[in-house]
Specification:
- The chain is an alpha+beta fold and about 170 residues long.
- It folds into two domains: about 1-120, no CATH class; about 130-165, no CATH class.
- It has helices at about 5-10, 90-95, 110-120, 160, and strands at about 1-5, 15-20, 25-30, 30-50, 50-65, 75-85, 100, 105-110.
- Strands 2, 3, 4, 5, 6 and 7 form a six-stranded mixed beta sheet that branches. Strands 1-8 form a two-stranded antiparallel sheet.
- The chain starts with a strand and ends with a helix.
């Protein structure tokens, strides 16, 4: 979804309220397809402050992530604060790393929302804090049932030393 900012440029000091439902079915990040469970919404405002635009608001919605330990899909609620700055002036962008260059009179809100969602994703995705994961031998989900595997915690590099005292 693109927002026309040409009217803000002409006034040099203006404010625009943005209330959008972002149209995304899902996206792929880090080789994983992330499905949208509840619609993603952006509520905020766009201000023209001198030579740059400032976008502030909040992203809400629910996405589906895969647990890093047990591989179960689980819902993850989004509640992300957005504070982005844009400018058409290349010199202003070069001076400040926080300002993003905007080469037209439109601002693609979908890219901004998607970028902020990706930045907010947890590094270690867990369905619950005490997730036990999968058995490394048989692959049983240890959250739902115990496994009967006998685990020998011997480092293969030190396996010869195990027989040393026999």
């Amino acid at each position: 979804m693109k927002i026309d900012v040409s009217d803000l440029k002409k006034k040099k000091s203006a404010h625009k309220t943005i209330d959008l439902d972002v149209e995304l079915d899902g996206f792929t990040y880090d080789y994983e397809y992330i499905r949208i469970v509840e619609p993603i919404q952006f509520r905020g405002q766009l201000d023209m402050l001198g030579e740059f635009f400032e976008l502030q608001g909040k992203i809400t919605g629910t996405i589906e992530l895969t647990c890093s330990r047990c591989l179960v899909k689980y819902p993850h609620e989004l509640n992300i604060e957005v504070d982005e700055k844009f400018s058409n002036d290349q010199e202003a962008v070069d001076k400040d790393d926080d300002i993003v260059f905007m080469d037209s009179d439109t601002l693609d809100i979908t890219e901004i929302v998607l970028g902020n969602i990706i930045l907010s994703l947890p590094i270690k995705r867990l369905c619950k804090e005490n997730c036990r994961g999968l058995c490394p031998i048989c692959g049983t989900d240890l959250n739902t049932s115990p496994c009967t595997c006998v685990a020998e915690d011997v480092d293969p590099r030190l396996a010869k030393l195990k027989d040393f005292f026999d």
